[in-house]
Write a structure and sequence with these properties.
Blueprint: E1 2-3, E2 26-29, E3 32-35, E4 38-39, E5 48-50, E6 57-58, E7 71-73, E8 80-81, E9 94-96, E10 103-104, E11 116-118, E12 125-126, E13 139-141, E14 148-149, E15 162-163, E16 171-172, E17 185-188, E18 194-195, E19 208-211, E20 217-218, E21 231-233, E22 240-241, E23 254-256, E24 262-264, E25 277-278, E26 284-287, E27 300-302, E28 311-312, E29 325-327, E30 334-335, E31 349-350, E32 356-357
Parallel strand pairs: 1-5, 4-6, 5-7, 6-8, 7-9, 8-10, 11-13, 12-14, 13-15, 14-16, 17-19, 18-20, 20-22, 21-23, 22-24, 24-26, 25-27, 27-29, 28-30, 29-31, 30-32
Antiparallel strand pairs: 2-3
Amino acid sequence: MADFSSIDQNRISDLTAWKICSWRGRKRWNAADVQDDRCIGLNSMDANLSIPHGVRTIDRAAFAGISGLKRVVLPETVECIEEMAFTGCADLESIVLPRRLKHIGMYAFARTGLRRIQIPSGVEELPQGVFESCKNLTEVVLHDHLHTIGESAFGRCFRLNRIELPCSVREIGKSAFAHCYALERMRLPGNLHEISGSCFYACQGLRQIEILPAPVEIGEFAFFGCSKLTAIDIPVTVRAIQKMAFAGCNALVHVKWRDQPITLGDYVFQDCTALLSFLPGAKLSAIGKGCFMGCRSLRRVRLPDNPVFSEIPAVSFWGCTNLKEFRMGPNVTKIAEDAFKYCPTHQGYSTPPGASHF
């Protein structure tokens, strides 16, 4: 392992391969300025790298794109790893983050070969893209002080299958777990304000999702293409489900609804080909166009009887070829002409006498 502790700072010949900072004062090593407790990078190295005690900051892009680096040991003095510090180190398999670490920058470990990572308790935020495209990453250990997981933080971590979100997490950014194909189960903590757009986009292995009562919105494409998800329980706190949130979940059979005011956006359940029924609570406010388009197993629909729900928009139930029972309240006054296109004509349909097509 390369070890800086044995290097004589006064002998430039010992530092031909290195560009690193001293931990005190200002020096010039290998034609590079180094100062103020900062590690600014290197030219070449062994497969194993040990950063010297006293270094507090790993500079921006300090080791970006270095090939052959497999293992990094950071001293307990490191408090900050800046953005892109190790990005693109495709051979990097192991790094132990020190307990005193407080800050990790954007894309700091993106596109590395890390297999497992444990985040110290002093880190409160995982920023945008911090572990994006770590295709060998299987396990992440988080601690109770973490409150934010940034946009695409674990996006395209294809093998990630072990991660538990602590109850302290309040925000999860867009696409945070998109394309995590091996992820099978997820429990979302009870402090989330929303489930962001594309959060679990194309998590093809996701079978079970538990959403504790807290979020008021499920963002667009949040669970798009989660093709093994079979059931979902919508918490009573949710007031809106945005465009295509569950589209393409073709194993989804059951959705459990509560009696809360809620609005469904456009194409929310499009091509959920296994979905059997839509039996929402009495306070459903609206459904968007194409909401159940292509749900060819859908058999029963009972829309609420309340003064707010008044319209069935375009292609809402287009292609629901097995629809047998359809009920709607007397307050529905507008039904799009193609709302039931390619649905069977059946006596089980109940349409209010005052409803008009548009």
